[in-house]
Fold this protein.
Amino acid sequence: MSDPRYALWAEGIRKTFGSTEALKSAGVWAEPGRVTTLLGRNGSGKTTLMRIAAGLLRPDQGVVSFMGNAGDRHTLARLARKGLMYLPQEPLGVPAYRVSDLFASVERTFATGGTKEAIAAAGLEALQAQRVAALSRGERVRVSLGLALARRPLVLIADEPLVGLSPKNQETVARLLRGLCAQGTAIVTSGHDTHALLSFTDVVIWSVAGTTHHLGSPAEAVAHWQFRQEYLGPLFQVDPPAPPEQA
Amino acid sequence: MRSLPPPPFLGPIAARSALIWLFLHGASLVGAGGEDVPFLESVVGTPTVSVVICAVVLVLMRIELWRRSELVFLANLGCSFARVAMLIVVECALLETALRLTVV
C-alpha cells in the first residue's frame, strides 16, 4: 500500500540475476522537497534498486508506486512522461551532441520554460556550443543536473552523482540538487562520498545484504552503531578535522 | 509532449537506420551474386529477406543507441525504444517500397 506522502514508493523488492540474489526485500521512498540517500557497501543492491524504481528493470517481486500509481508495467519512458527523471552513474548526455542540443530537446519535449535559468544555475553558459564528448566528467555531471533543472521533474533518481568529482564539483552538485529540492522535487540518490552526501541529505536508507533499513536523518544514521560499525567504519568522523593553525 | 524522438535525435536515427538498411541490402546483393538468381530479384529480395533486414536493422540500431547513451536519454524524454522501433519499421517499409518501385 503506497503512502500518499511519497512521490515514489518501492517496497518488498526482490530481484535475482541467475543464481545471484541482488535484492531480497528492499524498499525506497521519496518525499517531495527532500533528498533520500541510499548508502551501503558495493554490491549491496543500491543501483539495482534504483534501476527498478526508475523502471529500467522489472522486479521479481514487490511493488513500485509512482505518484500513487502502482503497476507492474512501469518503464522509464512511461514514468518520464509522468515526471520522473533518472540519472545513471555515467553522466546523462549523448557524447555526439552539443550541450545546447540536449537542452533544446528537453525544452521541446516538456516545455518547462526553465532552460535558460537551468543553464545559468549549472554554470554551463560557456559550454553550450561544445559536444558532450569534449567535456570532463565534472562538466558532464553538471550538464546532467542542468538538464534535470530544466526538466523540473517530480522525482529525480540520481545514481552516485558525486563519484569521481573533486570536492569543489561535489559542492556544486550538492547545491544543484538542493536547488531542485527547493522546487519540490523528490530526490533519491546514492554513493560512497559519505561526508558530501550527508551534507545535503534529509533521509538516509541503509542498503545491506539485499535489504534496506530506514535510518532517519543523517545525524540519526551516524549515531546508529551498527551502521557505523558495518558501513562507515571506525575512522569515519562526523566533522572533518580542523586545519592546523599557522605558527 | 512528443512520443517520437525530438530533434535533433530524429534525423540522425532515421539516417543511421537508412545507412544500415542500405548496407544490408548491398550485402544481400553481394551474397546473391554467386547464386543463380535473376539480377532484379537479387536487388529487391524476397519478402522474407526484407523482414530479416528490418529485424537486423532494429537489433543493430538498439545496440548503436545503447552504445551512444541515447537509449536512456530518450527514455528520459518519454520516448521508449518501442517508439524508435516503430519509426525504424515504418522507415524500412518505405525504403522497401521505394526500392521495388524504382527497380521493378
Remarks:
- Chain A has a mean pLDDT of 90.
